[in-house]
Structures are given as C-alpha cells and as structure tokens.
C-alpha cells in the first residue's frame, strides 16, 4: 500500500478522528502516571472542582487525540514527526463516559527549505463530545516526506 | 500544610522541574497506547528517522513535563485546571536514557473577571536534557484560587 505523501495534504482536505470512548479507568490510569491532581483521580473531587466530574487531564485528551490522528491517517503517512504545538485549547471538560470524535483539516502545506525532500503540513484539529460540544481545539504542523523524486520540482 | 495560592505566584518566581530519567520501556509503553509511530516504538526505526534514535513522542515529553510540574509545585497548589497550551515546541528529540530537568517561571498573573475568587497564572516552561540542551519549551496558564477572603480586594 502506498503511504500518503506531502502532495496528498492539500489545503481544506479533512481527515475524520475517532470515535473514542473515554472510561473512568483510562482517566485514572493516565492521571496516576502523569497528572495526579485530585479532579483527575477521584469522582467526588472532580464534582467538587470547576470541572464538574471525574475529568481527563488535558494532556490525556491531547494524547487520545494523537492516537486518533495515528489511526485516521498518520500511520498511513510518510510522517517525520512534529516540531510542536502551535496552540491547544481545552474548551470543556472531558468526563468519564464521554465519546470523542472530530477532524483534522489541512490549513497549509509547503516544502521545508531546511530539510530537502520534506514538507511541513499545518493542521487544525477539532474534537467534540457525544453532544457535539467542542472540547478540544488546536493547531500544529507535521513533517511529511515528498514523493520520491519530487525534490527536484518542489 | 497551607497550599500555595494565587498570591504566591509572583512574576519571575521559578520552580525547578525534575530530574526525570526516561527509559526505553516508558517510551514504548506510552507510544503503544497513544502514538504508535515506528520511531517511538523501535530503536532501529528511530535511528533511521530524522530523530536519530528511539525517541519519546512529543506528547509523552509533554506528559512527563506535566508530572514534573505536579511534583514540583502543582500538587501543593490550590490549582483549578488549565485552559490549554499557548504553545509547546519540541526543540530536540528526547531519547531513551536521557534525563530531563528544567523550570517553570511565572510570566504574569491576574484575577479572572469571569470566575471570582480565581486567578490565572501564566508560566514559561523550559525542559533540558542531561547535556543542558533545550528539548522542550512552552507557555501555558493555570487557574489558581485566591486565598480565602481575598476576593474583596482582588
């Protein structure tokens, strides 16, 4: 199977993300290792917080979004990693029992001057819960190889 | 023990982060769940990539940084969650065997208009490896409660 290359990421192309069901066990497991604040570990502490229930760490939501990207298109892409996150807004709490889905939309793409044969693709990412409420919104860029032989004309 | 409150986060105050040793097992475990791209799962694939070795997912580095923040000051703070990430740059690969450390520096702080009794503290975060090379740089804000009774004068 031919992998997606830089040339396949045209502006406005959309890739669906999810669905991903979020369990209390997953929220507590991630938080125990990476973000052991009470509202991410305990239902009662979550309800007492401004998050309103046992809520995923924003970093957990971000990690789940990464997995959704992998499953949607990234594992089928000649991807070379990402230089970072332009921004990520955690708009609403992700609570135990929620189901997440969304989309990655190509904003722009250009060949890199510093790395011949590699292009940089900038995405906007939107994640919603089962009620259609936007819970996570972000933008970042990913490095993707041009098709073999494409360097000369890039 | 009295927790840190909004008033304790004065601009320029620094909190040390780490050290955190990063093992190959941790890199593969995180990647298997959240970012199963070959360079995060396999030493040889990592060496063949532009990352140069078995490298942590940027989201894994970010999650480890979150844990370093918790251990340094956040679990001892009356914190109410974070609205997101202003930006995060993964400047250099984090490879198996690296040891990470760094600092969070308060950039600014102000009471929130929309949430009486809560202030927003903006941080700059810097993470370095054992050679003193900057591997991760970011900024984000955290919501922190004012001391009880402080609302009236905020």
Automatic annotation (TrEMBL), chains A, B:
Q: Per its UniProt entry, which superkingdom is the organism in?
A: Bacteria
Q: Which CDD domains match?
A: YdeM (cd03454)
Identify the residues that the record assigns to the MaoC-like domain, covering every copy.
18-112
Please name the Pfam families in this protein's record.
MaoC_dehydratas
SUPFAM superfamilies registered for this protein in UniProt: Thioesterase/thiol ester dehydrase-isomerase
Q: What is this protein called?
A: Acyl dehydratase
> What organism is recorded for this protein?
Rhizobium lusitanum
